[in-house]
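Pasting two entries for a bug report.
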Amino acid sequence: MQIIRSPWSNPFRNCALEASLLKECSDNVLLLYINSPSVIVGRHQTVAAEVDEKFCAENNIPIVRRISGGGAVYHDEGNVNYAFIVNNTDGALELALDYAFIAPIVAALRALGLDAVVGDRKEIRCGGYKVSGTASHVSGSRQLFHGTLLYNTNLQQMERALKGNPALRGKGIPSIPDKVANIAPLLPVRESTEQFLLRIADFLQHSDFGKR
């Protein structure tokens, strides 16, 4: 599997890159990237119900709609994003239902000494707190499975940005609130978000998963 580190921090470009790799590429790819502050909403969500649009506008936080379902998430320079984009020639779509894409991320976190486990909604939890949410999208014989890793995110700004008005939801899909935590305080050594990303990438590159 090819591992790609996006050169961009622009959330519009990285969402577009995911879509392009899904629809125009035939290789199995793991895309890693770090976005500047932004809110990424699910394909079927009502923005006003999930996001404080006034707060985001005042703080230059763009709101981007992704192609996958799921709930709204906040990105910033303390958040690592991963996206598995694969073919279905070896049954990858079926394996995805069995958490095949989450397993290597969990293994990477455990290799760093964390008690990472998979939750009921395909999220990753450490010490009872959610540190990674996931979503997926199928296009023909290709699948996108992507998620976040809260490493050193501004949790106060995240909470403020993701405070919409539920009364405006209509038929939109709601985000599911959960207790979240950053990974950085759980590790014995503090490092930058980029260093953390590189450690995850190195583990995956040399794992059995990276050789697929």
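Entry 2 (this is the one that rendered wrong in the viewer):
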Amino acid sequence: MSAQRSRMSKSTSRRKFLAGAAITGAAAVAMPQVSRAQTVTWKYQSTWPTKDIFHEFAVDYAKKVNEMSGGRLKLDVLAAGAVVPAFQLQDAVHSGVLDAGHGVTVYWYGKNKAASLFGTPPSMGWDAHSMLAWFYYGGGEALYNELINDILKLNLVGLLYYPMMNQPLGWFKKELKSADEFKGMKYRTVGLSADLFKEMGASVTILPGGEIVPALDRGLIDAAEFNNPSSDLLLGFPDVSKYFMVRSHHQQQESFELSFNKARYNALPAELRAILRYAAFAATADQFAQAHDRYSKDLEEIRKRGVNVIKTPDSVLEAQLKAWDKVIEANQDPFFQKVLNSQKAWAKRVSPYFHTNNLTTAQLEVAYKHFFG
């Protein structure tokens, strides 16, 4: 009997163990399903009109987040002006009128000029890839957070992504041959670039993208820059100007800024916060590749529309560098100089390897001419 009771006891214990394990396993499977069923929808506005390729990029970022999160976090995309004008985006995200936004730091440099260093820093032999690398690996993100959290005390979390190509000098009524021609010119730009062209004698007007072509058409401004051939074509620049000057030192390194309401960002589970960050990294690679395709095609289309595409003279480029010296000298705010010194140290170290002196890169122009003439 003793042996039989022992076998019965062991059998009962085994059944209890398996039953308990089954309950625990079911809970482990069920709980994430419950979590996945809980969805959050955010109002996410861009600073770009719907017909701009940059709004397409804002939509693409949202698509990546929505798909990576399995629908648990949905970014409901709105174009500039749907809730607030482009230049009021940051205030709207800060206050919670919007949950998230897609723009550039230069659109709010009026709050603190150091903001523009994260979007239009001086041309120091580096490009947007190098600036984005500085942001994530050279101390830039910590400085950005210091500006947002400690100096401006904004209810925001932000990220930079997508290194933009060297931006053109812009659209003019005639070919620009001398830096002196900027004197008295009514010219549109943004950020520290506004200070740069003021130093060159221009009368600067700061406008968001969707308002530039109408201003050119009505004669409110004489010339303007925006960003790239695709945006310029979609916004209608070839309809109001036939001289497109390319090459410039005013904005050689710029990236998109993603802004999130901090309280709502912090309320998300850790994995959704991670998706917001890593979707930006994925969009950086994807959108940069797409830009290669679109920008080159659209530059050809711009030429087909009778636009003269002209390289900016070296004398104008040299005048821009001298103007940068004056802009830097005029901004002695300690935090501005702190950010600038960090950028200088980074550019001085990385540029010889990646950009200047042909230290590691064979001359691309020579190779191009060899194969294509």
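Dev reply: Rendering is fixed now. As a check, the viewer should reflect this: The longest strand covers residues 156-163.
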